[in-house]
Design brief:
2 domains; mainly alpha; Rhopdopsin 7-helix transmembrane proteins; elongated
């Protein structure tokens, strides 16, 4: 059961990758998207390979005890490199500087990966250790150097990435879901750095003769597991957050869309797999088209009266304006009379959502009821 957490984390990470695959197919030449996909791919791979059953399978298949250690370390190093490359692409988009920095990180990654395997084969680790290799072989020549090299590289990379995320998040043009995602990334990479520090402490403590198995084999994996999940969440938040906003706006526009739908011939054929943004665009188009078709019936007097009533009842200026527009739309659909002066509607998404909410407020319903009674009379 304990080993299942490794595969669970890998599935979460690869689930984040699945969200990015459509963007990767559309914009393969975009270095930011490629780097982001590489980050999540290598993160998931490192966790899938680090599972005890995966380690046993690698060792058994190759016939070399503990060969899984440099394999996992190399994949984790590639993950750290992808993170640093992504930061470079974010900081210097579409520039030669980003490409130079990315090449530098890749060369360092190649050097470290080669060194990991060289040190492993120079050393001697005959007894398979699936969970506590770092602590168990802390005093073994070459193997201990391999472990320390990996931990130092991983810790430095996580610390640098975390600091770059902090710098990026403090820039004034970063806001909303992107800013939230960066702050989550800061936490995730800080936990990854903490994993390196804790494991290094366990290795050094073991070399000094202290018992550090719990620290290196239990606490450290928990830190890096939480860090990996947070990093995954941080990368998908900007994408998922935008979809959440679009979905909520789509739902909130439903009353206004239903009210205006009979007055428009606009239709868009949507499948069950249509994106939230496409559905929102369709609903906005229905609303805009419906407003255009009843524009000549819009009465500014109705708008002003309802707005003043809303203000008198304690509504904010923005909410009062939305209530006024909602009342005017309702009456326009009922009366269909030519006003002396056309009214102007604010058609931003935020305001339309407020208008949609105002459709069923007491003021608007009262105005509508009076108009219906007048029409019947």
């Amino acid at each position: 059961m304990a080993g299942a957490i490794y595969y669970l984390v890998a599935l979460v990470l690869w689930g984040a990758l699945a969200l990015k695959v459509p963007a990767l197919r559309r914009d393969w030449n975009d270095p930011i998207i490629r780097a982001m996909c590489a980050v999540v791919l290598f993160a998931g791979a490192s966790w899938a390979l680090a599972a005890p059953s995966s380690i046993a399978a690698i060792n058994h298949t190759t016939g070399t005890p503990n060969i899984a250690a440099p394999v996992v370390y190399a994949v984790s190093t590639a993950y750290s490199t992808a993170c640093l490359t992504l930061m470079a692409c974010w900081a210097y988009p579409d520039s030669d500087r980003a490409r130079r920095i990315s090449r530098m990180w890749m060369l360092i990654c190649i050097f470290v990966c080669v060194a990991l395997f060289v040190l492993f084969f120079l050393g001697n680790a005959p007894l398979e250790r699936r969970r506590d290799l770092a602590v168990y072989y802390a005093n073994t020549p070459f193997i201990s150097v391999m472990i320390i090299l990996y931990l130092v590289t991983d810790t430095i990379a996580a610390a640098i990435t975390s600091m770059l995320c902090v710098v990026w998040a403090t820039r004034s043009r970063i806001s909303g879901w992107s800013r939230t995602g960066l702050l989550v990334l800061v936490t995730g990479f800080t936990l990854n750095a903490a994993f390196g520090v804790v494991t290094l402490t366990a290795v050094i403590g073991t070399r000094m003769g202290h018992e550090m198995t719990f620290l290196g084999a239990t606490m450290a994996p928990r830190l890096v597991a939480l860090g990996a999940i947070l990093v995954s969440v941080g990368y998908i938040l900007p994408v998922a957050g935008t979809r959440i906003d679009s979905t909520l706006a789509y739902i909130r526009l439903a009353p206004l869309s239903r009210h205006l739908h009979d007055n428009t011939k606009y239709t868009m054929h949507l499948s069950r797999w249509s994106s939230a943004q496409m559905r929102l665009t369709s609903r906005q188009t229905v609303i805009q088209d419906g407003i255009i078709r009843i524009a000549r019936y819009l009465d500014p007097a109705v708008q002003h009266s309802a707005e003043q009533s809303a203000l008198a009842s304690g509504a904010t200026r923005r909410d009062a304006q939305a209530i006024g527009d909602a009342a005017m739309l309702v009456i326009a659909a009922i009366r269909r009379t030519q006003p002396h002066q056309p009214a102007q509607l604010v058609t931003s998404l935020d305001h339309l959502v407020r208008v949609s909410r105002a459709i069923h407020t007491p003021i608007v319903e009262s105005v509508r009821d009076r108009a219906l009674e007048s029409q019947r009379a």
